[in-house]
Amino acid sequence: MKRALYVLLFLLFSKNLSAADLTADTYWEGLKSSVTLLYQGSYMQFRAENNLYYAGAAVPALWYSFEEDKRITHNQMKKRIPKYMQVASDLAPVLSFPIVPIAAFSLGVKYDNPKSVQFAKETFATMYLALVESAALSVVDIHERPKKDKLSKWETNFRGKSSFPSGHVVPYAALTLKTLQFYGPYWAAVPGALFVATSFQRIRDGKHYLSDVVGGFFLTAFAAEGVRKAGKYQDTDTAYKSIFDTYRIGYTTYEGVLGPMISFDW
């Protein structure tokens, strides 16, 4: 896995650093912007209206997952792990390095594509915000892993004993959500499929319960919307806008009475 990482980084930098405008200062400014988005997204996720939608889905999904965790997880652990699931899962820690954001940023600067640059920054901020939050939440004693043997350093050195939520699926979840936001559902299907395959692998391998991967997804979704709000970028995909920007949920008052409000923007 380390060898694959080195090869990818070599190919990336050997190709893209040849451009005159891709200097160390360019990357440094991009990193500072990304970290700023991460910081702002960390508190703006609690103000993002779209996270109300995610919360509405997360509550019943997590309730069901916790209720059925042992049954579903133990049934899945009896099944074999196909090669494609294992490969997808093994690649996830590699993608926890900012390989995709660096590539998208480099190409965006090189070809003067602001959308690619913004995609890189928001993907970086979303992924690392969710990873930090996942590590912090794992310190809370919710439940340990179904199987505690043969854990890698990634699974022990960077988080607490609780397996909730899964940090392993965060890179794919961040890529899926940000690809959906910027480039639409067809491109998002690729990291989305890798997310699903990795989620099954983690459960079948006894490293996580169902609730862990569900929690990892929604944690990343909340971070993604917080970063989106911080980024204030408007050129999002049409399908994404139709899902998240067409409807508004809130509250209103009429003759002194408070009530719910649902608005439509068609």
Q: How widely separated are the two ends?
A: 48 Å
Give me the side-by-side strand order of the main sheet.
1-2
Number of domains: 1
Largest sheet composition:
2 strands, antiparallel
Oligomer: single chain
Rg, alpha carbons: 20 Å
Task: List SSEs in N-to-C order.
Answer: HHHHHHHHHHHEE
Number of extended strands:
2
Shape: globular
Q: If you average the pLDDT, what whole number results?
A: 87
The low-confidence runs, each spanning 5 or more residues with pLDDT under 50, are none
State the helical fraction: 55-70%
Structural class: mainly alpha
**Please, how many helices?**
11
The proportion of residues in beta strands is: 5-15%
Mind explaining what this structure looks like?
- The structure is a single chain.
- By secondary structure, the chain is mostly helical.
- The protein has one domain.
- It is built from eleven helices and two strands; from the N terminus they run H-H-H-H-H-H-H-H-H-H-H-E-E.
- A two-stranded antiparallel sheet has the order 1-2.
